[in-house]
Amino acid sequence: MSDNPKHTNRLINETSPYLLQHAHNPVDWYPWGEEALALAKQQDKPILLSIGYAACHWCHVMEHESFENEQIAAVMNQHFVNIKVDREERPDLDEIYMNAVQLLTGQGGWPMTMFLTPELKPFYGGTYFPPDNRYGRPGFPRVLLGVAEAYRERPDAVAQQADQILTNLDRLSAMEGHGHQLTAEMLDRAYQDYRSRFDYHNGGFGEAPKFPPSMGLSLLLRHWHRTGNSNALETVEITLKKMAYGGMYDQLGGGFHRYSVDERWLVPHFEKMLYDNALLSVTYLEAYQATGKAFYRRIAAETLDYVLAEMYDAESGGFYSTQDADSEGVEGKFFVWDLDEVEKHLGTEKAKIFCEYYDVTEHGNFEHKNILHVQTPADLFARKLGMDVEELERILAEGRETLFAVREQRIKPGLDDKILTSWNGLMIRSMAMGYQILGDERYQEAAEKSARFVLSELSQDSGLLLRTHRAGKSHLNAYLEDYSYFVTGLINLYEATFEVEWLTEAERLNQIMIEQFWDEANGSFFFTSKNHETLIVRSKPGYDGATPSGVSMALHNLLRLDRFLNRPDFREKVETTLDVYYRQIEHSPSGSAQMLCELDFLLSTPKEIAIVGQRESGDTKAALGAIHSRFIPNKLVALASDGAAVSDFIPLFDGKTRVDGKTTIYVCENYTCQAPTTDVEELDKLLQ
């Protein structure tokens, strides 16, 4: 960008990196706000609403082709009030108008381009529009002029279309329960749905493009745990291995790219999202617990280490949002290799082994370049070469280290360094679990630091949360997912550290969430709070897509806080809410994976494990090691040096003391506790 740009618009005053990317477009962009909305009414102009995010490749393409084009910008400025929105800052607007796009076109995606009346009602829209007629899509100038003419010449038709779309949006949001019975058959049908779409050869479900099904895999692990069905575990393991061997996983730096454009997980969309890596690290940790296989442990650790290296502000404690797909204007350039380049840095002999293992060839596997991926596991590959597997792994590790150092000298992809409360909550959970299961204190420290950052920098004096922070500024009302994800992180942080303050904060924010978002009339939670600006609909989306719905994670918290704090009213809210989404679950189990995980918890007999002892004692650590080495998805763990001291807050400790002055563990189910034990071997039996 020139030091003296030709154009500057109102986005220059925003903090979102995505909005700032457009601040020097010739388009007269406005951020969403009163100024733009009032202008549309005053001038009776339709609103052109463009929604995207910083790591979105096609958002960059449309900006370069259309928004940087002065002729196209002139048409936009003449006929519309142009508003640019970062979907990660304003998921409320994204959710409403993405539903509208899908109603209009049958598909969605970003960039989203929606045309609204001054009353904010959508009447026409789509996603990416090229600058001229191509790809079977109309050119953007043609669309602009057609919409402007329709708004001017056929106002009645536009109003009728807008009212029809609004009616359909209202219908989507009008959800209430009908007294359905919640049974394990719902979980079994979900398993059958996943299994029917399973790709036995490549892992994953359905055809390309393939998104990482983290929540679905966690649900299948629960099915295996509940039923003993080995096919469910097989489905999980094949998928986890294929993803981690594929190009969708960064073989040098760790961490997962957004999704695979092919069915083999080879060619990724190269952006890396904080939420994907938070969710996938949890699934790999759970798979390690379930199987004991070191491979899953390694992938989980490398993913968390990637986040600490690239997506974490060690000074403040906040986790960043996304790493871009593009560098130097080219998608994936940072991540791909030439054969000559690898041979130069590794030497001929080692490069021969490395390149065969990671499929690096002269002709390449992606646009004449090479994406590193694994075709044959190391043990089988070593056998093929007739060499010792430890020697092979040493050569590969040295090669990865060398090429990683070379790659670090390249120009890195752009970083969206805004800090979102919701996604930080997900990563706090992952880091806390990483510490519990892997024992790396860096993960605990990062989780605690992030939690303190949110509580200090993303909290208002009233106690309400804010959505986003960047460049020293926090703003925008928090949404349901901000509360529910963050409370989840706090609960996990308590179970990792046993510092009561984290559970206290979880209870406080959970109560605010109920007060601000609960639908007293029909049950479940609204997406926006009581004090949010009025939009055309107030929706209650429960769909678990790329991220879990705010509703699903709210249920996650209510179920656990019910057990920790003895709050049966929380369990009642869970049952009411699951009834509201019963039809969604039946119709789309894969779009309800996290919600079904909560149903699994609800229908189970969770293990309530109370430990009375010193946190740092060897006996306590041995007990915690036994607990966290097992896959026990439906459990909660509490620890206190003196049970009586915290029993008023955590009733689980009522009447529980140490036996013979030793660390003592109580395992309870169905409000009944087994005899206390001080022996780890006995504990192991109680956990079975």
Describe the structure.
With 688 residues, the protein is of the alpha+beta class. The chain has four domains: 164 residues, Glutaredoxin, CATH 3.40.30; 333 residues, Glycosyltransferase, CATH 1.50.10.10; 80 residues, no CATH class; 80 residues, Glutaredoxin, CATH 3.40.30. The chain contains 27 helices and 19 strands. The strands form six sheets. A five-stranded mixed beta sheet has the order 1-3-2-4-5, sandwiched between helices. A four-stranded mixed beta sheet has the order 17-16-18-19. Strands 8-9-12 form a three-stranded antiparallel beta sheet. Strand 18 and strand 19 form a beta hairpin. Helix 8 packs across helix 9, helix 12 packs across helix 17 and helix 19 crosses helix 21. The radius of gyration is 26 Å and the shape is globular. The model has no long low-confidence stretch (mean pLDDT 96).
CATH fold annotation of the largest domain: Glycosyltransferase
Corresponding CATH architecture of the largest domain: Alpha/alpha barrel
The best one-word shape is globular
Question: What's the gyration radius in Å?
Answer: 26 Å
Q: Reading side by side through the largest sheet, how are the strands ordered?
A: 1-3-2-4-5
Overall average residue pLDDT: 96
Query: Which runs of at least 5 residues are low in confidence (pLDDT < 50)?
Result: none
Please describe the biggest sheet, giving its number of strands, its sense, and whether it closes into a barrel.
5 strands, mixed
Strand content: 5-15%
Tell me the helix content.
Answer: 40-55%
What is the terminal separation in angstroms?
61 Å
Count of DSSP helices? 27
| Count of extended strands | 19
Structural class: alpha+beta
CATH class of the largest domain: Mainly Alpha
Number of domains: 4
